[in-house]
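Example for tutorial group B:
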């Protein structure tokens, strides 16, 4: 597959030569007899620096479809006002895969773990997981509620969008913005699993680098956007639309992926997390995890995120005289973590790939007792390569995250997660200064 590189820029792509109109967006007659259609990701009057839209040149406009019919939706939530509020700390074992005899596609396999706010007020976020084993064939999905950041954990996926194809594997992410139609296919047989963060507020952007300078973290050139590809296919297709958490479907007479050419800055993309340029302390102390932010969706308060997408990639640890795992912490932010592969250094035994954890606002958390004992007693400070086969991430939000009934009653929730800290004992030594003076 061919991709366009960059971030937050203007892109253009055409599957047929000269399919893009010259010097205008909406001519009386488009090349090849196509229809011009604009997809707006921001209001018309949003300042230009933040304005996002894309022009499609397609075979049939999106407005041609049957009447919407509401369909059953037991598991997807977009209003969290009535979900469960608790400061309890949670950890989930790997979320279950579909059974072999089940035929579950990406849409049917989505389960909401928790979130905050509501799609109706365009404020807040949702955390979902997906587990599926069947490609969406003649079905497309469009989300009215927010942008989707998809994090595959097990199995490759092929995302067909109106702008073209994105092949995404574990270790990569994809972002599909509000309003883009897409479908998820599986190149090979077998089950797939992953995580989704949905933001109701705005759109993901790159974090400011401040004194880091002009380069580092996720570099813009490493983001990949699809190139134009179209299907000119008639037949029975189904469009599934998520609207305020409800699921509606409408019948189509042809494939909705019929965009022959497009241009704009509102385009799905993917990113390979192995390209992340990690920054860390080279003297002392464990730095705050914000230095590992790949993408952020900001609130109206500068520096306060509706969601930060943070990763914990392979990197060198070289700090001197420092407890190198994450420090003990109480946070004004909600922290949902997922494990893509390998062991997470703060809890190497219990936090499994395909699982998750939630530490809510001001809930104490940190390394388990075994990790603290081992790492606080280590002799010397040799440089350490963090495992190359490990990758975890965090969705961090300023909002209080409520959890769903599914997450507490049906998902594989650990019943005694709090006991991982039960072994922490008092090490207080009121005579420490005397002993320290004696050593000197």
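The residue assignment follows.
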């Amino acid at each position: 597959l061919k991709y366009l590189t960059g971030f937050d820029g203007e892109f253009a792509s055409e599957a047929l030569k000269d399919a893009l109109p010259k010097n205008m967006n909406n001519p009386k007659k488009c090349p090849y007899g196509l229809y011009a259609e604009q997809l707006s990701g921001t209001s018309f009057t949003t300042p230009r620096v933040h304005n996002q839209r894309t022009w499609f040149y397609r075979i049939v406009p999106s407005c041609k479809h049957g009447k919407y019919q509401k369909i059953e939706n037991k598991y997807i939530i977009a209003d969290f006002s009535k979900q469960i509020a608790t400061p309890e700390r949670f950890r989930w074992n790997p979320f279950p895969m579909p059974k072999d005899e089940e035929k579950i596609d990406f849409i049917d396999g989505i389960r909401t773990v928790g979130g905050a706010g509501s799609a109706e007020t365009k404020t807040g976020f949702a955390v979902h997981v997906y587990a599926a084993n069947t490609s969406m064939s003649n079905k497309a999905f469009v989300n009215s509620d927010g942008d989707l950041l998809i994090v595959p954990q097990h199995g490759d996926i092929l995302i067909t969008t109106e702008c073209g194809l994105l092949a995404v594997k574990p270790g990569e992410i994809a972002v599909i913005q509000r309003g883009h139609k897409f479908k998820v296919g599986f190149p090979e047989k077998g089950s797939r699993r992953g995580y989704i963060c949905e933001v109701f507020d705005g759109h993901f952007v790159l974090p400011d680098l401040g004194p880091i300078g002009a380069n580092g973290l996720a570099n813009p050139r490493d983001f990949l956007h699809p190139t134009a590809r179209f299907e000119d296919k008639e037949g029975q297709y189904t469009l599934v639309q998520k609207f305020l958490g409800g699921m509606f479907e409408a019948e189509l007479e042809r494939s909705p992926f019929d965009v022959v050419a497009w241009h704009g800055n509102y385009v799905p993309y993917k990113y390979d997390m192995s390209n992340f340029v990690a920054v860390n302390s080279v003297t002392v102390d464990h730095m705050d995890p914000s230095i590992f932010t790949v993408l952020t969706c900001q609130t109206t308060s500068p520096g306060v995120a509706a969601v930060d997408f943070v990763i914990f990639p392979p990197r060198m640890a070289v700090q001197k005289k420092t407890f190198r795992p994450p420090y003990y912490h109480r946070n004004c932010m909600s922290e949902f973590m997922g494990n893509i592969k390998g062991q997470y250094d703060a809890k190497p035994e219990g936090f499994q790939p395909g699982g998750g954890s939630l530490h809510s606002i001001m809930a104490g958390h940190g390394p388990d007792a075994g990790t603290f004992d081992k790492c606080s007693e280590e002799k010397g400070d040799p440089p350490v390569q963090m495992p190359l086969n490990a990758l975890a991430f965090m969705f961090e939000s300023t909002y209080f995250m409520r959890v769903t009934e599914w997450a507490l009653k049906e998902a594989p929730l650990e019943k005694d997660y709090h006991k991982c800290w039960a072994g922490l004992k008092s090490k207080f030594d009121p005579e420490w200064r005397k002993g320290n003076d004696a050593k000197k």
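The longest helix spans residues 369-376. Compare this with the pattern of hydrophobic and polar residues in the output above.
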